[in-house]
Amino acid sequence: xxxxxxxxxxxxxxxxxxxxxxxxxxxxxxxxxxxxxxxxxxxxxxxxxxxxxxxxxxxxxxxxxxxxxxxxxxxxxxxxxxxxxxxxxxxxxxxxxxxxxxxxxxxxxxxxxxxxxxxxxxxxxxxxxxxxxxxxxxxxxxxxxxxxxxxxxxxxxxxxxxxxxxxxxxxxxxxxxxxxxxxxxxxxxxxxxxxxxxxxxxxxxxxxxxxxxxxxxxxxxxxxxxxxxxxxxxxxxxxxxxxxxxxxxxxxxxxxxxxxxxxxxxxxxxxxxxxxxxxxxxxxxxxxxxxxxxxxxxxxxxxxxxxxxxxxxxxxxxxxxxxxxxxxxxxxxxxxxxxxxxxxxxxxxxxxxxxxxxxxxxxxxxxxxxxxxxxxxxxx
Length: 380
Hints:
It is a single chain. The chain is of the alpha/beta class. It has helices spanning about 30-40, 55-60, 80-85, 110-115, 160, 175-185, 200-205, 230-250; strands at about 5-10, 25, 30, 45-50, 70, 95-100, 125-130, 140, 150, 165-175, 210-215, 250-255, 260-265, 270-275, 275-285, 290, 295-300, 300, 305-310, 315, 325, 330, 335, 340-350, 355, 360-365, 370, 375. A hairpin with a 6-residue loop joins strand 8 (about 140) and strand 9. The longest helix is centred in the middle third of the chain and has 21 residues, at about 230-250. It is elongated and about 80 Å long.
């Protein structure tokens, strides 16, 4: 069955206290929505639709180069109403997976399990166990413990139901034809006057359609981002995930909690990274590279055996093998170093090439220049 992924991303995010739409807030150097889109594409969906609203022009412009279907939610009338806007262009024969633009840490493997463990003509919701489920809708299971019989919001929950630790994440998989029918029957007869997606679960149960509850492995994976504190928490969680993946490939870190990867970091063998190193964009470190403390490297390639001493800034540049950079060096865009090049204290190089074995040791600016082999540039 073909898969349509619908990402609800129309919220204003007032708690962010920012002019930037919530789904464009940066996480590991990229918008929140970008992470959700990456996860969606990993599932090989036939159709990805983004429901947008607040900051509509900015959100669309940020992803103008991607093949997406857009659905405008002009009024913020709840999650059910948001989904209604997207379903107008969703084929009846497709299966629908509902995601959220402010839930960026979901893994493709988790969503694959949600889809694979549920028959195509049935419904599944992603759930998770929480130590403190306060404020979340509780998952009420059938007597045999398998299917989901209801989702009860905390304000409506009994004392027994409030003791349930399994909560609803909002992520939902459902046949499109059934979902369209249930969405048409949604009511906004509530205090907020909104249409709630969770009401679809009650309709599925009433129609005797099996509702499966598939558990995520960790609350961190399904955390929603509503304010800057939660954004910072998600940043640390994602950085831990990225660094852990690199360590499994053999990369050494002096302190895994004090490195930031805001893009793609590719490393060879025996790479070591000291504390407070920041990598932005696409960065490649060759075999045996050593990155000392307090460095920023952006969109650059560092050749094998090179040492980048402390407090350097390297952007859109490249080095050959066995170079030595810093401390306190700056390589601006277009700096290209060959092999065995030394760039020392308080040296700035821009749009220049430095050939094999040359040294620019200290207190020097090199711009729009070609330096040959074996040259020694003195101070100034």
